[in-house]
Amino acid sequence: MRWKLLPLRLLSCVIACVAGTALANTQITVTDKDGKPLANAVIFLESPAAKAAAKPLSGVEVTQIAKQFSPQIAVVTPNTSVLFPNKDTVRHHVYSFSPAKKFELKLYAGVPAAPVVFDRPGVAVLGCNIHDNMVAWVLIVETPYFGVTDGKGRLNLDAPAGNYQLKAWHSTVLPGVPLSEQPVKIGPGNDTFSVKVAGSTA
Ligand SMILES: [Cu+2]
Question: HSE (CB half, 13 Å, CA atoms) of 23?
Fold first, then answer.
């Protein structure tokens, strides 16, 4: 068998198994409080081992283009540096007043010289002083095992087998409201979970 014919998932499993960490694949379906599929929900798996495995991510950017943030939702681990390049011809003034990270990038064009370091867990809501309709979120999670749901409210997560606290966030849940969470036992093997995000709307 030629290596390039191996499905990517199998290949990553082979690599993980050789490295000694068997990853279990978990399929998660997320719905809102009314049971409708919830797109752009963030799911993450917390545990002491996950916290220890969470290293700062590299190369994370939240671009401003066509007077919008892209991506609108960024999930990072603590101490990740995020760059905010402006690809518009107009200047932006990006800020967050959130307790998780307060910062301000005063009116700028191009790429700011310094990234913003998100140093503690939480949710930072970003805005632009010039364009009131611009909004984005940076979630800082103490785990490498996270994902964002697709248009049908689904996501696949690969994580080592074990016990976790599964937490869910969606932008329609108001700041300060505790995140939906539930204990889950992952793997070995494939699992499916359904998650309902309290207070959210699709
Ligand atoms: Cu702006």
Answer: 20
Q: What distance in angstroms lies between residue 200's CA and the mean position of ligand 1's atoms?
A: 27
| Beta-bridge mates of residue 116 | 82
- Strand-pair partners of 83: 61
- The reply to whether the predicted model has a pTM over 0.70 is yes
- The Å distance, Cα 137 to ligand 1 centre, comes to 15
Q: What's the length of the chain?
A: 202
> Which residues are in the CB-under-5-Å shell of ion ligand 1?
92, 128, 130-131
- Spacing, Cα 128 to ligand 1 middle (Å): 5
Q: Which among 182, 78, 197 is positioned nearest to 149, based on CA atoms?
A: 197
pLDDT in tens, 15-70: 444 455 678 899 999 999 999 999 999 999 999 999 999 999 999 999 999 999 99
Query: Separation of 117 CA from ligand 1 center, angstroms?
Result: 20
* Whole-number average pLDDT of the chain: 90
Out of 3.40.50.620, 3.30.1370.10, 3.40.50.880, 2.60.40.1120, select the CATH number for domain 3-53+142-196. Answer: 2.60.40.1120
